[in-house]
Amino acid sequence: MPQVITNPKVHVRQVATQVFSGCSRTDLEKLHQFLSSEDAETFEGDEVSGEYLFDEEGNAVVLTVTSYRSMEAIDFDWCSETDVQEAHCLLKVLSEWLKNPVPA
Asked: Could you tell me the pTM of the whole model?
């Protein structure tokens, strides 16, 4: 049975803080735009990148977001309900950070 994260937003906030610590506001804004976009497939910032991987039918199956600063990546598997929830939470966390910047 898959592990159930009781509060995905708290979990995502912890992981995102670790991965994106020290990234510029500009790159976080670009990442937010990429994650909000309906049709963007890749994103390349100075400190952060994002990429959707597709299956043979052209369906997005995995989203990978990488920080060059921390040398870490977060993968979201679109076949996993938990991962989809966490990707939505990452977008919310980024929105909060852009309204009230968190010190690195």
From this structure: 0.82
Angstrom distances, CA of residue 27 to CA of 16, 48, 49, 78, 81: 14, 6, 9, 24, 27
Bridge partners of 66, per DSSP, are 49, 73
Tokens of residue 29, six digits: 């804004």
How much of the chain, in percent, has pLDDT values that exceed 70? 90
How far apart, in whole angstroms, are the C-alpha atoms of residue 18 and residue 22? Answer: 9
Say if residues 48 and 22 touch (Cβ distance below 8 Å).
Answer: no
Helix axes 8-20, 81-99, angle to 10 degrees: 60
